[in-house]
């Protein structure tokens, strides 16, 4: 019986030893998602604003306004969740996203519209992958559920981006400029 008790205490001690590491990994996974989701939403808001300021195409402008409205709301929800879960909200978007915006800023007319459409499609494909991954892999149930709730809206944005009518002109930014953006498993 003494051996059994020693064994039980040894197992219990080992489990307790690893518990802090498990919860740290869980928090890190949630933080990683938050960082990527905030950056993605900041990028989408900036992209929408750029469409409002640069495009002459009314359909592109309406889509840009939708991006600004919808992703501002999502960003506010992310910031609230971060505060309640004691996670850190990043200050800005990722460098590659800022670089894409800078590249778009020099384009005009249909060149801008075509590039905007390409970026909007790829951006939403990436966001869908990020949020689907989060809805399956985050440890925080509330966060998982919230991410899953956002996927239909992202899919709707993707479909609308694909349907944008742009008169034919080759863009200076191809969709492969965002292909390097990989969605890492959380």
What is the element layout, followed by pairings?
Layout: H1 2-54, H2 58-85, H3 95-105, H4 109-137, H5 141-163
Describe it for me?
- Pfam families: DUF4142 (PF13628).
- Residues 168-177 have a biased composition (Low complexity).
- Residues 29-164 form the DUF4142 domain.
- Residues 1-24 form the signal peptide.
- Residues 165-186 are annotated as: Disordered.
- By secondary structure, the chain is mainly alpha-helical.
- The chain has a single domain (25-178), classed as Ferritin, core subunit, four-helix bundle (Ferritin).
- The chain is 77% helix and 0% strand.
- It contains five helices and no strands.
- The protein has helices at 2-54, 58-85, 95-105, 109-137, 141-163.
- α1 (2-54) packs antiparallel against α2 (58-85), α1 packs antiparallel against α4 and α4 (109-137) packs antiparallel against α5 (141-163).
- The N and C termini lie far apart (44 Å).
- Residues 8-22, 169-177 and 179-185 have low confidence and may be disordered.
């Amino acid at each position: 019986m003494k051996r059994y008790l020693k064994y039980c205490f040894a197992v219990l001690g080992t489990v307790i030893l690893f518990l802090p590491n498990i919860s740290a990994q869980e928090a890190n996974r949630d933080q990683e998602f938050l960082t990527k989701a905030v950056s993605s939403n900041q990028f989408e808001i900036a992209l929408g604003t750029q469409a409002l300021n640069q495009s002459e195409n009314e359909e592109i402008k309406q889509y840009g306004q939708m991006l600004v409205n919808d992703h501002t709301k999502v960003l506010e929800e992310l910031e609230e969740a971060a505060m309640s879960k004691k996670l850190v909200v990043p200050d800005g978007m990722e460098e590659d996203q800022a670089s894409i915006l800078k590249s778009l800023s020099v384009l005009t007319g249909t060149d801008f519209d075509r590039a905007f459409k390409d970026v909007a499609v790829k951006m939403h494909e990436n966001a869908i992958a990020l949020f689907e991954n989060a809805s399956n892999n985050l440890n925080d149930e509330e966060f998982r559920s919230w991410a899953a709730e956002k996927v239909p809206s992202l899919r709707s944005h993707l479909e609308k981006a694909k349907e944008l009518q742009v008169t034919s002109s080759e863009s200076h930014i191809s969709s492969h400029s965002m292909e390097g953006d990989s969605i890492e498993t959380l």
